[in-house]
Design goal:
four-stranded antiparallel beta sheet, alpha+beta, 82 residues, single chain
Length: 82
């Protein structure tokens, strides 16, 4: 599984499971060392297109991606193949 980290410090609804918790399973069969940021963005946009908060989502060059979701949760995904 790719390196992922969920940040729920700004979650709006306060539930135990956020969209970011669910979205990290899109990367189950991936390896951060072999994944590019472009590929990581395509994976998350394919599975969660209507839940992503695009205004707060960023590509972190050399590190990976930071995907913000509409419930306030954030998913950090390591993508180091760049």
């Amino acid at each position: 599984m790719a390196r992922t980290q969920v940040d729920v410090s700004t979650v709006i609804f306060g539930s135990a499971t956020s969209i970011a918790h669910l979205a990290q399973f899109a990367f189950d069969r991936e390896d951060s060392r072999d994944m590019t940021v472009e590929y990581a963005m395509r994976l998350i946009q394919k599975d969660w297109p209507f839940e992503i908060d695009h205004s707060k989502t960023e590509i972190e060059c050399g590190v990976g991606i930071r995907v913000a979701f509409k419930d306030g949760s954030v998913l950090h995904v390591g993508a180091w193949a760049d």
